[in-house]
Design goal:
Strands 1-2-3-4-5 form a 5-stranded mixed β-sheet, with helices on both faces. It has about 120 residues and is of the alpha/beta class. The radius of gyration is 13 Å and the shape is globular. Helix 2 packs across helix 4. The longest helix has 14 residues. Strand 2, helix 1 and strand 3 form a beta-alpha-beta unit.
Length: about 120
């Protein structure tokens, strides 16, 4: 899985755009890169856009593993908002499952969107 991180320090958010095959290791690497970026500050909002990624092998057990990874980084993530962009029905469902498994255990408010424009609009509101 490849990804690009853009941090907007003025509007206090990071946007991650991914491509390629989504798997637990790829998401773990992306998460570590975001919270390890020198421009990242806990509490920044976060948009993760999986529109150009393949989730063909994703399953509910992997979603649980991803949830645990994110929970472990709660202190580095901080509060604020997290928007996840998934375009297909199945992917959207997996992202909602992640939201339900995670949101009560981290300080970020999580929402799932079908397009990046809606996600960015929510982040900026």
């Amino acid at each position: 899985m490849e990804f690009n991180i853009v941090i907007d320090e003025i509007d206090n958010y990071a946007q991650v755009i991914t491509s390629g095959h989504i798997d637990v290791n790829g998401i773990a690497g992306t998460l570590k890169a975001v919270v390890g970026d020198e421009a990242w500050n806990p509490g920044m909002d976060l948009v993760v856009d999986y529109s150009d990624s393949s989730t063909v092998d994703l399953n509910s057990e992997m979603v649980r593993e991803i949830s645990h990874l994110v929970k472990a980084e709660n202190n580095k993530l901080g509060s604020g908002k997290m928007a996840i962009v998934m375009t297909t029905d199945l992917d959207y469902g997996y992202a909602r499952m992640f939201q339900l498994l995670t949101e009560d255990y981290i300080d970020k408010e999580i929402n799932v969107y079908r397009d990046s424009e809606s996600a960015l609009k929510w982040i900026s509101s």
